[in-house]
Amino acid sequence: MIHELLLALSGYPGSIFTWNKRSGLQVSQDLPFLHPSESSVLNRLCKLGTDYIRFTEFVEQYTGHVQQEYNPSPQGQTGLHGIYLRAFCTGLDSLLQPYRQALLDLEQEFLADPHLSVSHVNYSLDQFQLLFPSVMVVVEQIKSQKIHGCQLLETVHKHSCGGLPPVRSALEKILAVCHGVMYKQLSAWMLHGLLLDMYEEFFIKQGPSSGNVGTQPEEEEEEDLGIRGLTGKQLKELQDLRLIEEENMLATSLKQFSLRAEMLPSYIPVRVAEKILFVGESVQMFENQNVNHTRAGSILKNQEDIFAAELHTLKQQPLFNLVDFENLIDRIRSTVAEHLWKLVVEEAGLLGQLKIIKDFYLLGRGELFQAFIDSAQHLLKTPPTAVTEHDVNVAFQKSAHRVLLDDDNLLPLLHLTVEYHGKNPKDSTQSRDASSSPREAPTSGWSALGLSYKVQWPLHILFSPAVLEKYNIVFKYLLSVRRVQAELQHCWAVQMQRKRLKYNETDVIKWRVRNHMAFLVDNLQYYLQVDVLESQFSQLLQRINSIRDFESIRLAHDHFLSNLLAQSFILLKPVFHCLNEILELCHNFCSLVSQNPGPIDDRGAPQLDVLVTGFSRQSSLLFKILSSVRNHQINSDLAQLLLRLDYNKYYTQSGGTLGSFGI
Predict the structure, then answer these.
(1) Who's near 536: CB < 8 A, 6+ residues apart?
(2) Full 3-state SS string of 402-429
(3) How much is the CA Rg of the chain, to the nearest whole Å?
(4) pLDDT means per 10 residues in the chain (663 residues)?
(5) Nearest residue to 477 via CA among 382, 559, 576, 392
């Protein structure tokens, strides 16, 4: 019977020890010579045999499953699969080896001494009575919850943190085997830019992150605060500006790779995972770049073998050490970041490229765009056609030559784009611009105007299409402000030519309204160019010159761009909409004055009344929005603009209204 017992414990039940799929291994009830106490001891041993048989079934089933699935389609699989599961099975199988050896030793002992009892078997296998049930809990959790990929690491790690030394030691050995897979994936990703993950198990995936999708409902209850055009939801947006900035940075991200958060084990911090992502992206970009084959592989300064050996050393350690792991990741990241910094800043001339971005996208070359506005006014005041884009670019080139901007290397990289009805957009910029503009369809060429720039390698990692699209939004906004300012200045010149002629009451109204419009637009322009653009740009340059780390430069640039969008109020829909309405009213007023330089007739008087009333209402709304935010002590940018407009309290004393008849 002892040999029957040893065979049953080895996974081969017979007539004395029977196997039942539900209850497992049990002593047969038809044996009259067994005392109940002996049956109790034998059933206790049978529980070990039951666990062992289920362990071996699990190992055979899922190890074979992975081997057969050579060309899988992970989306269609619902069962357990993957390389990490196979590694877990390998570790589990090695965990069972001492048990098998103990059964062999017992057989030798019983052959040498036939008088040994069942109690000796119970004593020899007692060390597994704690171990097997605890490991079985892990196996059952994997099967029931269909735990996949790096989630296995998290599950095994949590169960290894118990207070039973044998269980902790055994699960740590299994975890070490599973970590071997992770280290191989890390080595391929960080040293060669290869994402070897056919079963979607790694915590890095190809494609954009979906973690911020659907985090906020699109429609919320609108709460009226008694301020025209400003609701509770919009005021909350003003109060939560930092979140809006971050959302803006992430919303249009076109990153090729991202973190798969659900696969990241809890004992690996997100900051470390982001460093791993950055290194792999950089190496992958470098390896796949066809422009400079001679540079391939040099991003790690030819230290791939050294880093591979250090990763192998970490893999051989019995316990995962986060400090050693993060130190190695930091060293690899520092090597990559410093090399990229040298490549981008010194060799590719990042500061010069930023100067180009500032000169053209942010209207740093004011004289160029002043000349362009004058020469393209007749081309863009009507709805655009198929030839408008070509004519506008010719006018842009002529304006550049007129202001002595004759850089033959620079001008071919810049191209003005004009969207017109029937044109096939190359990307989704048209739909995104529609969301940022109060006008749904372009009514003139100015509203459809954009700027494109051919970014040279390797600066495309900083100036991605998503980044250039945001710059384009700022460009269109700044150009509209500059154009309205130029129109008001031309309107002033027209009125100055008639100042000695006889004038009536409507002329006085026109003078007053133009003066108030110019006051508001001039202060807005000064705020945008000085308080926002120059201030933020100087901070960006200072940051770039003080560090030798590419990732810090990218973060500084992202922060710079998000600050531009936030502080110019493009993100704050109530303010942005109000300012656009004011600019539109100013444009219509200038058109009216240009068409009627003399006294306004009866047909133009109602139109002037509408413009004056509209400007009065919109300026009042703007003042109320700025004042309400200032009273809540929320945002310094709005307070700065209000300070520009209300520096002598004239705005306040007039009740927040400009351009009205009573002023």
Answers:
(1) 560, 563, 564, 567
(2) HCCCCCCCCHHHEEEEECCCCCCCCCCH
(3) 37
(4) 85 83 77 71 89 92 56 51 92 94 93 88 91 94 91 93 91 94 92 87 81 40 45 50 43 63 92 90 71 51 82 91 93 85 78 80 75 73 73 79 71 74 51 42 66 77 80 83 77 67 65 77 80 84 82 84 81 78 78 69 70 75 70 58 67 60 41
(5) 576
